[in-house]
Amino acid sequence: MTHTIRPAVPSDLPLIAALIRDLAVYERLAHEVRFDEAQLGEHLFGARPMAEVVIGEIDGEAQGFALFFHNFSTFEGCPGIYLEDLFVRPEARGAGLGKALLAHLAKLAVERSCARLEWSVLDWNEPAIGFYRKLGARPLDEWTVMRVDGAALAELAA
Q1: Dihedral sign of CA atoms 140, 34, 101, 116 in order
Q2: Is the pTM of this model over 0.90?
Q3: Fewer CB within 10 Å of terminal CB in the chain, N or C?
Q4: What is residue 14's predicted lDDT score, i.e. its pLDDT?
Q5: 68 φ/ψ angles, rounded to the nearest 5 degrees
């Protein structure tokens, strides 16, 4: 079994969209998926990309992805990588692809002089939490994620 991690290219857009939808089903959030594929492509591959994607393959077949972007730590005075989504298809789990994707991002973080690699995980996702802990990740229980979106975002912007 051979793992390959490669940067996504524009022709991967339908694959990325499908993997995002598969992730949303797994996370019980399919009802929240509302992206426009062309707009997603512009944000990933356009003149000013907002995020990057790597595709994880097993024996040449795409089985997962990681979508990430840079954030910045004022306390560290340098960038970090924020992992927005990591997903491996259920039939490919246990083959080491998830670990390979995270190791790839850790290597990118080191190469790019980032202070850290961070992500969020749903509280109910005990298998993922256990997996992340085995890799040395630790929860930041003292932080609460805050979000403004929809009408509240429009009102705040006004």
Answers
A1: negative
A2: yes
A3: C
A4: 98
A5: -145, 165
If DSSP states are collapsed to H, E and C, what string results for the chain?
CCEEEEECCHHHHHHHHHHHHHHHHHCCCHHHCCCCHHHHHHHHHCCCCCCEEEEEEECCEEEEEEEEEEEEECCCCEEEEEEEEEEECHHHCCCCHHHHHHHHHHHHHHHCCCCCEEECCCCCCHHHHHHHHHCCCCCCCCCCCCCCCHHHHHHHHC
26 annotated active-site: no
Catalytic residue among 68, 82, 87, 132: 132
Residues in the chain: 158
Tens of pLDDT, residues 21-74 = 999 999 999 999 999 999 999 999 999 999 999 999 999 999 999 999 999 999
Q: Which amino acid is at 17?
A: A
For residue 102, the enclosing domain spans: 3-157
Total count of domains within the chain: 1
What is the residue whose two structure tokens read 């927005």? 84
